Structures are given as C-alpha cells and as structure tokens.
Amino acid sequence: MNEETISAARLSICMEEFPYLTSILYNLTPVATPGLGTMAVDKWWRLYYDPELDWDIPTTAAVLYHEVGHIMRDHQARGETYNHKIFNIAGDAEINDDIRAEAKWQLPEWVVYPEKFGAEEGKLAEYYYKFLVDNAKECDGNCDGGGIHLPGEGDGEGNCQSSTGTPMNGKDCGSIADGTKRDYEKGGDGEKKISHAEGDMIRKQVADDINQHIATKGIGSVPAWMERWVEGFLNPTVPWQDEFRAEFNSFASHVAGNMDYSYRKPGRRSSAIPQIVLPTMTSPEVNVAAVVDTSGSMGQEELVSCLAELEGIIKASGSKVGVSVYACDADVASAQKVFSANQVNLAGGGGTDMRVGIEEAQNGRPRPDIIVVLTDGYTPWPEEEIKEKLIIGIVGNSDTSSCPEWARTIVIEDEVA
Fold first, then answer.
1. Running along the chain, 417 residues long, what does each successive block of 10 average in pLDDT?
2. What is the DSSP pairing of strand 288-293 with strand 280-282?
C-alpha cells in the first residue's frame, strides 16, 4: 500500500459513493507506519498505514470508510473514560454492522461484528462495551500480564483484554477510536493536526452537506446510519431552544429594569460630542448551569442521552461564556465551564443526591438563572422552591412522581438502542 492507493480509495469514496464525506477524507494526513498491519487514525486526524500491506483499492476504501465512521461518531471523546482496548472493539462493532448492511464494501475477514461476542446488531458502542464487560470472565492464566477474557470466538487467549494488540482478533484503529494515544502516533505536538474543536466544525459541515444531499436526492439517498447520525448530531431529543425561550423571555422581562450604563465601550453618538464620553446601555446575560446525574443507577445509555441533551442545552443557551456543568452522584465529582458536550467529564458512580449538585450550581459565579438537572429521577430534591428556575430532564423513562411540583419536569424519551 502507498499514498497513491490511499488517494485512489479516497477519490472512489467521494466520487462514486459519498461526496458529502469530502471534508473529512481530505483532512486526513497519511503517515507510513511499517508493521502496523492495518490503517488507523489518531485523534489529530493523521492516517497511519502499513506500506507492506497489499490491499486493493476497494479494500482500502472500505477500511478508510470504517475509520471515517469513528470520526463521525466521535468515538475519540465517547471512549476516553473507558478501557481503550474494549471500547475499540465496541466502536468497531457499532460501525461494522452498519457498513455490512450497505452490502457494497469489502472489509477484511478479521473485522469485528456484534455476533462475534454474542450481541445483537444495531446498538451503540456504549451498549457493546457494557455487554463485553458484563460477560467477561476472569483470566485463567493464559494471557500475558493477567486481565479478563472477553466473550466471543477464539480459544480464549486471543480474547484477553490485556493481551498484546486488540482483542477479538481485530486490529487497532488508533486514538480516534477511544481517545487513548498509541505508541506509534506522533501526538499533539506533531505537524498537520486537527484539533477537536476543528473536528467538530468539520463534522458540522458534513452533517449540513448530508442534509443538503437528502434535500436534493430525497430520503434514502444516504445510508440509514448517516441519517440517524445527522438527526442525533443536529437535533437533541428535547427542543431546548423552545424550553429556554419562555424562560429567557420571562427572565428578560424581570431584569428589564436592571439595565445600567457602561463606559467599557463608548456610545455610538460619542463622535458627535468628542469632549464627552457617552456611555452605552448594558444588561445582564441569562446564565445556565447543568447538573448531570453520574450515580451508579445511571447506565451508559442514560449517560449517552445526557451528553446529547447537554449539547442541545449548550447550543440553545447562546451564552458566550459557556455553560457550567456539574457531574454529581452523592457529591460533586467535577465542575467545568464548557462550550461543547465533548468537553464534559462525567465522573462519579456512587450514591445519588442531586441536591448537592444544585447547591454547588447555586454557589457558582456567576450565579445561574436556570439550572437543568439531567437524571433518572432516583434522587431526593430540595424541600423548598429555589430562587433559580429548575428544569428536570428525566432520562431512561423513569418515574417522575418524586419531582417537585414547582420545577419544570421533562421526560426525555430514551432513543438510545
């Protein structure tokens, strides 16, 4: 394999199949890596390939398309807090059953499919990760360095989580698959890198291009998984803009009398009176804080739902200073100011008391006007109405009867399958 083969494969994907993937494919930088045995992408979008491979153009295109799947689904950010070898398998399973359904790609025979470890098709990587961990067995001493045996085909040794290489007889896909840097990768200081923020912009462009393609060619003109991806990427389950609009309008009317003068930027009429500095009018912004339940009762599917809703909350808030996010179980595990859900660290895993997170949000600076709590509902709530507007988002189709009547409660339909 050489760069000419990669260029031909990239061109065949863009010209013959998916013109809307051009923004991703032509931002990948090829890097020859002898002995790799496959192609892989790091989280800075460098494409590593083994020059000793003799893959033809269709096979190269299929594996390249697989790597694009990791990028589009943002497995880099989704897998950072998990065991990277197991999440790599889970992400591969999420991608490969979708690719196989298209019936036009020649993936190598060693790739991972859900049935290889006894799971059903059509699930997300987080589901497959939990399935693998829940069905793992303790190592019986056949693996190098101890560890666990994952369920699936093989004699056990090849499925060992701690064995060299990726388990399930698959191949390593690079840090784009789980966020963990490999030894062969150049790292963040290398040349020609794409930052995660730049990657988000490219993903947004691809989503817009897919939408435009659908508008021109009609529904069904793109693979089904891409339609689902665009819907999830651009549209969270809850229309947070609609939810916030009423609250913003109400709050805006409440603070209308709180407008004041500011001399940080002179008024537009100052040029007419050069001897006098005229002030401008300023008014406070509406600040939003989000408390995310990370207790033990929150499964991976619920946390994925929370991340999708967080992205919607961040975009809908329209704040230039970001949104304060508090990961909370029985205590606040992390507090961050974020501008994207990909920046959120959902630490936790213990008991549940969202009152702690709400109190921490109330003590934030600036103090929030709206607090959104994303939870499965199995938590105590403040006994008395708080000063801030409280919106409760219930994930996992849980019971809402314990939610306080004075709060706005929204049931977030769990579409994560």
1. 94 91 94 93 94 94 95 87 88 93 88 90 87 76 53 51 43 90 84 81 89 88 88 67 59 48 52 55 71 86 81 77 90 88 78 95 91 92 93 82 90 57
2. unpaired
Q: What is the CATH number of domain 240-411?
A: 3.40.50
Contacts 24+ apart (CB under 8 A), 201-204: 202/23, 202/24, 202/27, 203/24, 203/71, 203/72, 203/74, 203/233, 204/233
**pLDDT of 26:** 93
- The Cβ of residue 53 has, within 10 Å, a number of other Cβ atoms equal to 18
Q: What is the DSSP string of 298-367?
A: --HHHHHHHHHHHHHHHHHH--TT-EEEEEESSSEEEEEEESSGGG------S---HHHHHHHHHTSSSP
Q: How far does Cα 94 stand from its chain's mean position?
A: 14
Round to whole Å and give the CA distance between 65 and 10: 9
The confidence score (pLDDT) of residue 52 equals: 94
Quick one: 62 exposed, middle or buried, by C-beta within 10 A (0-12, 13-18, 19+)? buried
DSSP class of residue 55 equals -
Q: Where are the domains of the chain?
A: 3-182+191-232, 240-411
- Can you give the pLDDT at residue 359? 96
Residue 16 makes CB contacts below 8 A (sequence gap 6+) with none
